[in-house]
Amino acid sequence: MQAEEVGLTSPEYMKIVELMHRKPNDLELGLFGALWSEHCSYKSTKALLSRLPHDGPHVVQGPGANAGVVRLDQDIEVAFKVESHNHPSYVEPVQGAATGVGGILRDIVAMGARPVALADLLRFGIDAHSLILLDRVVKGVGQYGNAIGIPTVIGDLAFSDTYRGNPLVNVMAVGLRSPEMHISASTARPGQWLLLVGQRTGRDGIHGASLLASRDFTEGDDDLRPTVQVGDPFLGKLLMEATLKAVSEGLLAALQDLGAAGLASATAELCDASGVGAELWLDRVPLRQKGLTAYDIMLSETQERMLLVTSDENLSQVVSIFEHQEILCSVIGHITASKELAVQYRDRPVASVRPDWLIKEAPRRPLSEAQWVSLKAPVAGGTAIAPAFDPRMVREVLSDRDVRDRRPIYRRYDSTIRSATIWGPSHDSAILRVRGSDAGLAIAVFGTGRWASVDPYAGGVGAVLLVLARLAAQGAEPLGLTDGVNAGNPDLAESYDAMAALVRGVADAARAAGVPVTGGNVSLHNETDGQAIWPTVMMGGVGRQPHPYSPLPDYLTASGDLLFLINPSELNLGGSVVALHHQGMTAFPRVDLRKVPHLLKSVSDWALSGVPRAMRAVGPGGLGAVVVRMMQGQTLAYGVEMDLKERDSDLTARLFNEVPLQWVTLVDSRDKDRAMDYWGNLGVEVTQVGVVNDTGTLSFKAQGHSWPGSTLLEAWHRPFEEGAYEP
Amino acid sequence: MRVGVVTFPGSNCDCDTLEAFEFLDVPTKHLWYADTDLTDVDAVVLPGGFSYGDYLRSGALAAKAPMMTAIRDAIQGRDLPVLGICNGFQILTEAGLLPGALRANRHGQFRCAWQTLRVTNESPLFLGLSEGELLRLPIAHAEGSYYAPAGTLADLFMSREVWLQYVDDRGDLNTLTNPNGSLANIAGITRGNVAALMPHPERALEKAFGSEDGRRLLMAWLRGLQERSAHAS
Fold first, then answer.
1. So what's the pLDDT on residue A606?
2. DSSP H or E segment with residue A309
3. Per-residue pLDDT for B233 more than 70?
4. Which of B12, B19, B200 to mutate to test the interface with A (most CBs of A within 10 A)?
5. ipTM of the complex
6. What per-residue confidence (pLDDT) applies to A95?
7. pTM for this prediction
C-alpha cells in the first residue's frame, strides 16, 4: 500500500518511518493516514484555533475534549458543540445529514451529558439540484433528531451559488449534566477493560475521514458513495440511554464516541488523552459481515458505537445495563501501562503504534505572529454604495431566501419533544427550561454567508456579535461559544488566508466580548473543481436565561408603544441583502470592538430591567426586516408607523444595513423618559424610529408609503423554490 | 389511582409523559415493554414519540410486545382504561384495539406545529371536556393521517367515537387546517375505555409552553377515571 492511498504525502511518510524506526505495515499506515488526515488532526488549523479565547469564569471543559462544557449553575453543566457533515451530505444527503446529527449527539453523550437540544446551520446553492439537496438534508436531520427524541430548537439557513457544489450541513448539539458526571476520554487507567458497545462493525465509511472529508471534490466522484455511513436513530437512542445510565451509576472510568476513523481514532485519542497504552483484540469486535480485515475493522465508520472503559469490579454491571437495552457489549481489549497501542487479530499482532505518534505528532501547519497580525489587515475595495430608496425594496428584502420565513424547514423537525421548549425556532433564540434550576438555557446560532464573502475577518466578527446580540436581547448571560469553520482547500493560499482571517475575526470578537470558544469543528476542502466556497463560520452560543418562563417578547404588544433603535450604526450596506441585489458582493462593515462589552452588558441589563415591552437584535434584512417580524408576532393586529430622518440612499442604508450590535426595542410611551435616561446615562445612542398603532400596516410617515401586513407576510412566506421579488 | 406509562425500546416521550402526571400529582408506574404485570395500575398510557425507530409502520413492532398482550387481556378482562398519545395511538390501531390506521402524512413530511382541535363528541372518558370545546395542542408526527374504511368511519361517527378533529382557530372544519390528510380531520377517537389522539397533551401543561390545554385534557381524563372507579366501588 502506498502513502498516497491513505491520503499521506511523502514527507509525512518519511516522518512516520522516522518515528517508528521502521516502515509501517499497511494497517499502521492506514492508522496514520486516518489520524493525520485534515479531518482528524486539524493539521492546517490547530495553530490558528489555539488563538481563540478558551478561558472564562464558567468554563468547565475547553477545547480538546469531545465537547466543551460550561457551568449553568451550581448543579448543572452544559456540554455543547457544533460539527459539520458537509461532504457526506452532498454525496448522500439524507444519510449524510442524519449521521451528522447522530455523530454530534454521541459527542455530547461522551461527556456524560444528556442531549437536550439540536440546532442546524445549513448553506445551499440556489439551483434546482441544491434545492433538492436542501429537502433531503432537512429530511435527514429530522429523521435522526425526531426519532431519537431530541428537539431541534433553532437553526440558520442561507443560500448562495458559492455552495452549489459544496452545501454545508453543520449541527450543534447541547446537553446537560450534573457536575458529578465528570467523565471524559482522559481518565482510563491500566488494568481496565475496553468495551465496544452498539452497532456491529461493517465495511461502511472506511476512509470517510481521510479521503472524503479531507480532499476536494472533482468530476466523477460517484465512487465516494460507499464512504458514507448509514444512521440508525433507534439504536442511537438505546445506546444513549444505556451509556448515560452507566455514567450516572458511576460505573465507567472513561468514555469515547466512535466517529471519524472509527475504532482507530477512538482508541488512539482515548489512550493519548489518558496517557496509557492498550491491547486490542479485534477478533472480539462483533461484525456485521464476514471477511473483514483488521484494516477494515480499525477504520470502519459504522455509526452508533461507543468505546467504554470500566474496571473489573464494575464490568458485570455495565454489561447488564447494555443487555437490558439489548445492545451488543463486547470486551475488546484492556488498558495497559505501556506506551503502545497493540492490535491483535486472529491471535497475531497486526499493528503496534504509539498513540501519541498518531495524535500529538501529527504534522501541523505553523502560524507565525506576523501571519496572525496580517490576518486583520483591511481588505481593499468592495465598498457598498447605497441605492436610492425604492419602496419595492421592502418586499424584495423580506422575500430574499436569507431573510424569509424558515417555517417550511423547521416544521419538519420536532421542536417541542422533551417538553422544555419555551421558545423554539420561530424566534431568534431558543429558550429552554432546565429541570432542577431556576435559570433557563438560551441558545442562539448564526453563520456567515454574504458577510464573509469579501472581508472574512469582518464576517467572523459579525457572526460572533450577532449570536451574542441575540442572547443579550433576552438578558441571557453568555456562557460559551462553539465555532464550525467551513472553508476551501487549505493548501491553496487564497482559501487558507480567507479561512484564517475568518477565524481571526471570531477570535477578536469573542475576546472583545469576554466569551470563550470552548470547542468546535473545522471542515476544509469544501472546494469543487477548484472553486472554493466562501469561508463560512457557523457560531453557536449558550446563555443563562434568568427568567425562562417569561421571555421578553419579540413582537408588538400594544398600540402607542414607541420603537427605538439602540446603537444605530454607520450607514454602511456592506454585505447586506440589498447590496447583493443592487451591486453584488461588498465588504461587510467592521465594528469597533472596544465598545462591545459595554453594549452587550447594557442591552442585557435593559432586557431584564422590566422597562422594555419587546426587543429584537438586527440581523439579515436589517432594521426593515426586524420591524416586520415584530409585526407578525401573534396576530397581525398591530402596525408600525416608521419615522426615519434619513432620505433617499441614506434611508436605504438605515433600513437595510446589517451591521451587528443594533437592537430594536419597544417601550410604553409613558416610559420614554426612563428609556432615554437609561441609555443617556450609559452613553449609548438610541433613536426613536416609529410608533406602534393598530392599523395592521407598515407605513413610512415622511414618504407616505404603506403596506398591509398581509402583503409583507406574503413576501416573507415565499417558498424556497422561488427567488426573491425583484423591484 | 395509579397510572402506568409504558416504555417500548426507543420510546422517547415516556419521560415527558411520566413527568406530566407527576406534575399533576398523580402516582405513576413506569412499565417496561417486556413485562406483563399490570396488577397495581388503574390505567395505562402509551406514550408518543417513536418505538423501535418505527422503521416498519409506526407502532407495528410495539403492538406485538408482551406488555401489549397484557394490556389487551386487561382491557378485555377488567376494562382497563388506556390512553394512547401519538405513537400510542398508532400502537393501539396496529394492535387492533382501536379501529382504523394511521398512514403517512399525505404531504409526505414530518409535521411539528401548534394545532387547534375541537371536541367532536363529549366522552365519559374525559369529564369536563364539552362538545364543541376548542383545544390548542402541539402535533409532531410523520404518520398521523387517520384512515378507516367507509363503513367503519360511519360507525365511528354514529357511535359518537370520533372524539377530536383538526379545526381552524375559529373551530371550523376545513381541509386547509388538516395537517396530515386524516379522513374527516380526525385527530382522536375513543372506543370503550380506550382513547387515543395524535397531538401531545403532555407538552402543553403550562401557558409558558404555548398552551395549558394539555393539562385540561389530562385532568379531564383523570376525572373520568376517578368517576368510573367511584361508580365501580
1. 98
2. strand A305-310
3. no
4. B12
5. 0.96
6. 94
7. 0.96
A vs B: CB pairs below 8 A: 79
CB nearest to A233's CB, from B53, B111, B200: B53
pLDDT of residue A94: 96
Burial (CB < 10 A; 0-12, 13-18, 19+), residue B204, is buried
For this structure, is A39 an active site residue?
yes
> What's residue B229's pLDDT?
83
For residues A224 and A91, the answer to whether their CB atoms sit within 8 Å is: yes
Q: In chain B, what are the domain boundaries?
A: 3-99+106-232
Residues of chain A whose beta carbon is less than 8 angstroms from a beta carbon of chain B are: 139, 142, 146-149, 232-235, 237-238, 325-326, 410-419, 421-422, 433, 548-550
- Catalytic residue of the set A54, A58, A85, A207: A85
Rounded to an integer, what distance in angstroms lies between the CA atom of residue A338 and that of residue A276? 6
**pLDDT above 90: residue B205:** yes
| pLDDT score of A212 | 60
**Which pLDDT belongs to residue B55?**
87
What are chain A's domains? 48-358 (3.90.650.10), 385-418+552-727 (3.90.650.10)
Class of the domain covering B3-99+106-232: alpha beta
Number of residues that make up chain B: 233
Q: Active-site residue among B86, B94, B141, B161?
A: B86
Q: What is the pLDDT of residues A485-504, one digit of tens each?
A: 999 999 999 999 999 999 99
Inter-chain touch B112–A550, beta carbons under 8 Å = no
B15 vs A contacts (CB less than 8 Å)? 418
Q: Write the burial class of residue A485 (CB in 10 Å: 0-12 exposed, 13-18 middle, 19+ buried).
A: buried
Of A524, A464, A467, A461, the closest CA to residue A491 belongs to A524
Judge: A234–B10 Cβ closer than 8 Å, yes or no: yes
Residue ranges of chain A with pLDDT lower than 70? 207-228, 634-635, 727
